[in-house]
């Protein structure tokens, strides 16, 4: 069996994890937002050096079976409202008001569409309709729309949207320069709920262009380097597929879903009944939940809290991360995010031209982060630049010292994460908090205390954990079609099977080598559920509709988890002392490097835990245990 490569592209950093049996190599590289394929290839090249001792991308790809890729770019774009300007052409029963009045949708509609919305009357004669349709598109294009979504409300959506498509193909040939791309809601998803289907199409249109350009560019560069197999895109349903087989919207929160797959595996391995995860990167904190061995998922997922047609892992993304901009505008209150400096220019301490204050700058100033060891020693931090950014944006407006300003920045940052945890789920005495991502472990003890949680798990691969979690996914596709009744079941099943056979062949697998699950979906008349296909179809009430689905999965190799807690007890090995400012007072804390510890190592805080790509402040009242898998368990003294 060859190597498996997992890549998680974040707004600030791109993580690479290479698995070969029980051996894992990991590395990070700065995300290059101007060309995401650059950090993609840079990361792979850097990983090849870690494996072979010198850069050899061709050798790495030649020995690799699968490359799985996830990204938070779509999530970050929506959080920061940075992306395509969309136009919307509505017909039938749909209206601007019906979309804005959908739950939680008004502000998002105004941000993505705004005034670029036109309603078209389809009752006109053919000639008048053509003229009105052309005027509508010209109006949307002249108002700045980069892409236009066409959506019809009503049972005839397929026929009416197809009718308009024929008109637009004649009037706006796609081969002409300047033609505005038109997307039709029925081509994105077949969903009887008009508002939900339209929102799904809008989100997909917002995310599609940038994802398409980058992914095909990355795949082209992989082919030039002689890759053996197509690039696989990890989706937010926990599975993977080729670029050409992936809908852009299904990349939304795919990075966090990778973390959730890893969290699920760890929860099952360690027997945690209820695990809440926080994946804190540069731009967002992604919060998820594992209960009774399963990832929390919704049949109709939510994007920015607006319902969409696809199932989604229930992960909430909050605009707070290691690179989130922190400022004080009114002389009293500190604001955290949602805007982020990303990796370019990055936190002021990076020395790349950034002048905004971030929590990373605060931890550099207070001494938690060591400029000599941060990012594996590959990125030197500038303390004075961090101080200057904090002074200008926070300390001076508050009228306090830079050190006290840093303490207040930390308090505001922690409070935003803790409040988001409480808004997402109910914390119980059985809850364990899993902290990962480059910024997840920073001050996780304080986050846990604020959230009322007494036990924290930091995976040994915390800094690249979402990338590692991709390794627990298989290749899967879903094939679905309407089902009129029991008489149509054999023919519908045969057609879906033919589609599945063709689709999996395109992935490089025979259908006979895949796991096939038959599902029956029932919707309409207030009902929306899915169940395994029964031997006899259930009775259907008036207004309800059936559809048949095949979930086809090709299992591929997954990591084998090891490690247990409580098997031994050893004193921790100190690597020295680190001077850290806590609440405006300087203290010398013991420094424990995780690579120096052996299984069963224990020690109490206050202290600093550190490895190549993450740092954790172990606060007073907390203790840590290190196990043979490299995982770290933190517990509040007397409450474990």
What can you see in these coordinates?
The protein has 640 residues and is of the alpha/beta class. Among the domains are: 3-78 and 212-251, Nucleotidyltransferase, domain 5 (2-Layer Sandwich), CATH 3.30.420; 82-210, Rossmann fold (3-Layer(aba) Sandwich); 476-554; 570-636, no CATH class. 32% of the residues lie in helices and 29% in strands. Strands 11, 12, 13, 18, 21, 22, 27, 30, 33 and 34 form a ten-stranded mixed beta sheet that branches. A hairpin with a 5-residue loop joins strand 33 and strand 34 (632-636). Helix 1 packs across helix 9, helix 11 (359-365) packs across helix 12 and helix 12 (383-398) packs across helix 13. Pfam families: Hydant_A_N, Hydantoinase_A.
Record keyword descriptors for this entry.
Oxoprolinase-like; ten-stranded mixed β-sheet; Rossmann fold; globular; six-stranded mixed β-sheet; alpha/beta; Nucleotidyltransferase, domain 5; 5-oxoprolinase (ATP-hydrolyzing) activity
Number of helices: 16
Here the CATH topology of the domain at 82-210 equals: Rossmann fold
Structural class: alpha/beta
Question: Which consecutive residue ranges, at least 5 long each, have pLDDT under 50?
Answer: none
Please, what is the average pLDDT? 92
- What top-tier CATH class of the domain at 82-210 fits best? Alpha Beta
Estimate the strand proportion: 25-35%
Report the biggest beta sheet as strand number plus sense, adding barrel if it closes. Answer: 10 strands, mixed
Can you tell me the CATH architecture of the domain at 82-210? 3-Layer(aba) Sandwich
Helix content: 25-40%
- How far apart the termini lie comes to 41 Å
Specify Rg, calculated over alpha carbons: 26 Å
Overall morphology: globular
The count of β-strands is: 34
InterPro entries: Hydant_A_N (IPR008040), Hydantoinase_A (IPR002821), Oxoprolinase-like (IPR045079)
GO molecular function, one term: 5-oxoprolinase (ATP-hydrolyzing) activity
Protein name: Hydantoinase/oxoprolinase
Domain Hydantoinase/oxoprolinase N-terminal: 5-112
């Amino acid at each position: 069996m060859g190597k498996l490569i997992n890549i998680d592209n974040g707004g600030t950093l791109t993580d690479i994890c290479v698995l070969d049996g029980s051996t894992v190599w990991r590395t990070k590289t700065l995300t290059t937002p101007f060309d995401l394929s650059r950090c993609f290839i840079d990361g792979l090249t850097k990983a090849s050096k870690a494996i072979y001792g010198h850069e050899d991308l061709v050798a790495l790809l030649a020995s690799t079976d699968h490359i799985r890729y996830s990204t938070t770019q779509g999530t970050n774009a929506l959080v920061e409202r940075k992306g395509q300007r969309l136009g919307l052409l509505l017909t039938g029963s749909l209206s601007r008001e019906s979309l804005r009045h959908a739950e939680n949708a008004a502000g998002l509609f105004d941000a993505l569409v705004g005034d670029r919305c036109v309603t078209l009357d389809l009752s006109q004669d053919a000639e008048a309709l053509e003229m009105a349709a052309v005027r509508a598109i010209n109006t949307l294009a002249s108002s700045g729309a980069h892409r236009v979504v066409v959506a019809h409300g009503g049972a005839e959506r397929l026929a009416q949207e197809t009718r308009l498509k024929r008109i637009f193909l004649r009037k706006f040939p796609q081969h002409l320069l300047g033609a505005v791309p038109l997307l039709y809601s029925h081509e994105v998803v077949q969903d009887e709920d008009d508002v939900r289907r339209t929102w799904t199409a809008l989100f997909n249109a917002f995310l599609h262009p940038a994802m398409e350009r980058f992914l095909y560019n990355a795949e082209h560069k992989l082919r030039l380097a002689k890759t053996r197999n197509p690039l696989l895109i990890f989706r937010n349903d926990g599975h993977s597929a080729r670029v050409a087989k992936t809908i852009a919207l299904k990349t939304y929160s795919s990075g966090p879903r990778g973390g959730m797959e890893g969290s699920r595996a760890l929860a099952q391995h360690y027997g945690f009944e209820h695990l809440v995860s926080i994946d804190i990167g540069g731009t967002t904190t992604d919060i998820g939940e594992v209960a009774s061995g399963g990832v929390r998922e919704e049949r109709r997922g939510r994007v920015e809290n607006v319902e969409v047609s696809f199932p989604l892992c229930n992960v909430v993304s909050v605009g707070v991360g290691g690179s989130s901009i922190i400022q004080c505008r009114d002389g009293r209150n500190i604001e955290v995010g949602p805007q982020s400096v990303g990796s370019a220019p990055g936190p002021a301490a990076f020395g790349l031209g950034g002048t905004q204050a971030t929590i990373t700058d605060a931890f550099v100033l207070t001494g938690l982060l060591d400029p000599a060891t941060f990012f594996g020693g590959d990125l030197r931090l500038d303390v004075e630049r961090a101080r200057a950014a904090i002074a200008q944006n926070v300390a001076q407006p508050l009228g306090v010292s830079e050190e006290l300003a840093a303490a207040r920045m930390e308090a505001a940052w922690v409070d935003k994460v803790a409040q988001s945890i409480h808004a997402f789920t109910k914390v119980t005495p059985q809850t364990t908090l899993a902290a990962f991502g480059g910024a997840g472990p920073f001050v996780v003890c304080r986050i846990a205390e604020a959230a009322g949680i007494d036990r924290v798990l930091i995976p040994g691969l915390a800094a690249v954990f979402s990338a590692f979690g991709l390794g627990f996914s298989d290749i899967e596709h879903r094939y679905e079609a309407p089902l009129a009744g029991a008489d149509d079941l054999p023919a519908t099943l045969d057609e879906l099977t033919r589609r599945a056979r063709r689709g999996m062949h395109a992935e490089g697998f025979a259908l006979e080598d895949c796991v096939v699950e038959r599902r029956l979906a029932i919707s309409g008349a207030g009902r929306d559920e899915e169940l395994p296909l029964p031997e006899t179809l259930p009775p259907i009430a008036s207004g309800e509709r059936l559809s048949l689905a095949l979930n086809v999965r090709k299992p591929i190799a997954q990591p084998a988890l090891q490690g247990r807690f409580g098997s031994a007890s050893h004193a921790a090995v100190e690597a020295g002392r680190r001077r850290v400012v806590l609440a405006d007072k300087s203290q010398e804390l013991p420094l424990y490097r995780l690579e120096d510890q052996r299984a069963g190592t224990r020690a109490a805080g206050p202290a600093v835990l550190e490895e190549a790509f993450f740092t954790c402040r172990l606060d007073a009242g907390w203790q840590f245990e290190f196990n043979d898998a490299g995982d770290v368990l933190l517990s509040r003294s007397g409450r474990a």
